[in-house]
Design goal:
Elements (H helix, E strand, L loop, with lengths): L2 E6 L9 E5 L6 E5 L9 E5 L8 E14 L2 E6 L6 E9 L2 E7 L1 H7 L16 E5 L14 E5 L7 E5 L2 E9 L1 H9 L2 H10 L3 E6 L14 H14 L5 E3 L3 H31 L13 H10 L12 H10 L2
Parallel strand pairs: 9-10, 12-13, 13-14
Antiparallel strand pairs: 1-2, 1-5, 2-3, 3-4, 4-8, 5-6, 6-7, 7-8, 9-11, 11-12
Length: 320
């Protein structure tokens, strides 16, 4: 019976500490891998050409089935638990990558929820502006949205009402979020977002993904996010689990901002129709001011005591 082999990578400085031998074909398919099984998340793998002679074998597992189906290899082990998995060949940022996933990790990355198709805020057709620098933009294919590509002063997606931007959303993946935090770029981006009436940052992953990072201290990222929220409390940072849910949240947020922008404009028009408020009354004059005026007016007044009523009336009449 064919065997699936897991060994320890003899390269001491490698970030992929394990080797995998997948029994496909005569020579098999070989990978360096970040884990021994995709239990909580997909495991990143890198194809290799040969099997090192000094590799320490950790497990030899009997294989029930190993079949190549398109851009994936389906592997079924001959054991009761943790027996089904899949190696998926895909591309990311222009290079080929391989992810080893199991039914559990696929379910976590694709939660069993159906996105609503109802129009957000009752808007029949929402126009969403997409920044021209966004390489893989949301398509909003399931919603009644028209997309226009144009440069945006801040964010990746925006809504416009009566020729003015009313809201914008900055999209982040976990690697992009971490790099912008460690490079201090996110602080400047938050300042630009704060200049708009409504703004938000949506992250295409769970908050828990921060604490699975190995290239940066998770506490550093968590502290930075907390500090950003304290500094700019009006700009929410939303973790939306998946890219699809992040797209859905972006659509609802921009639609709500566009809807309330009309309410704000109506309120400004009503305020503009109100009469100008009367100026506040002038403060009462002091006794010294009244005495000084009375002397310049040729009126007889003492240096102390109460000021006569007729002099106060004369002062008020002269200054109205």
């Amino acid at each position: 019976m064919a065997q699936f082999v897991i060994a320890r990578n003899p390269e001491p400085d490698s970030r992929l500490p394990y080797l995998l031998w997948v029994p496909l074909g005569q020579r098999g398919v070989l990978f360096k891998a970040g884990g021994t099984w995709p239990r909580t998340s997909a495991v990143y793998c890198h194809p290799i050409d040969g099997w090192p002679d000094d590799a320490e074998v950790l497990e030899r597992l009997p294989v029930r089935s190993c079949v190549r189906r398109g851009a994936a290899i389906d592997l079924v082990l001959d054991r009761g638990r943790e027996n089904r998995s899949q190696f998926v060949f895909t591309t990311a940022r222009g290079r080929e990558v391989v992810f080893w996933q199991s039914p559990r990790t696929v379910k976590q990355s694709r939660p069993g929820v159906r996105r609503p198709t109802a129009r957000a805020a009752g808007i029949p057709q929402l126009e969403i502006l997409v920044d021209i620098r966004e390489q893989y933009p949301y398509r909003f294919a399931d919603q009644r949205v028209s997309v226009t590509r144009r440069p945006l002063p801040a964010g990746d997606y925006a809504a416009m009402v009566d020729g003015r931007l009313v809201a914008t959303v900055e999209r982040k993946s976990i690697p992009d979020l971490i790099s912008s935090i460690t490079g201090s770029k996110l602080k400047y981006a938050m300042a630009d977002l704060a200049a708009l009436p409504h703004a938000a940052i949506v992250v295409e992953d769970r908050y828990a993904a921060i604490f699975k990072q190995t290239r940066v201290r998770p506490a550093t990222v968590a502290d930075a996010l907390a500090e950003l929220q304290i500094t700019w409390p009006a700009i929410p940072i939303v973790f939306a689990d998946t890219r699809a849910l992040a797209e859905e949240w972006t659509y609802r947020f921009l639609a709500a901002a566009a809807h309330h922008a009309g309410d704000d404009a109506h309120g400004r028009d009503r305020l503009a129709d109100l009469p100008e408020p009367a100026p506040p009354p002038a403060p009462d004059p002091t006794a010294a001011e009244i005495r000084a005026w009375a002397r310049t007016a040729g009126l007889d007044i003492s240096n102390g005591g109460r000021i006569p009523v007729e002099i106060r009336e004369a002062y008020r009449h002269a200054h109205t």
